[in-house]
Amino acid sequence: MDGWMDGWMDGWMDGWMDGWMDGWMDGWMDGWMDGWMDGWMDGWMDGWMDGWMDGWMDGWMDGWMDGWMDGWMDGWMDGWMDGWMDGWMDGWMDGWMDGWMDR
């Protein structure tokens, strides 16, 4: 019992643990981790980050910044500067200068 069973335990079982199980851990599991998981992270997730997110940043945000904001800056602000401010400077100030100072 001690000889044959111990030899069987040491040999076949340990060989099974070291060989098949470890080989399964190192091979299939690691291959799964490296392959499927990393491929998922690198492929789908990165593709999502690079594609959708960047496309959102580049498209919507830039389009918003370039379009609405710039249009707001160019249109409303410039129109305000050119119209109201210049009209105020030309009209009220000049009228004040011409009227009050000339007297």
Give an overview of the whole structure.
The chain is 98% helix and 0% strand. The chain contains one helix and no strands. The protein is rod-shaped. The relative contact order is 0.04. The N and C termini lie far apart (129 Å). The protein is mostly helical. The mean pLDDT is 71.
What does the secondary structure layout of this molecule look like, with pairings?
Layout: H1 2-102
Question: Based on CA inertia axes, which overall geometry fits?
Answer: rod-shaped
The major sheet is characterized as: none
Give the number of DSSP strands. 0
Helix and strand content put the structural class at mainly alpha
Instruction: Give the percentage of residues in beta strands.
Output: under 5%
Mean pLDDT: 71
Number of helices: 1
Order of helices and strands: H
| Proportion in helices | over 70%
- In whole angstroms, how far apart are the ends? 129 Å
Radius of gyration: 39 Å
| Multimeric organization | single chain
Task: Pick out the low-confidence regions.
Answer: none
Organism: Dreissena polymorpha (Zebra mussel)
Protein name: Epsin-1
Give a quick summary of the entry.
The chain has 103 residues and is mainly α. The chain has one helix at residues 2-102.
Keywords summarizing the entry:
mainly alpha; 0% strand
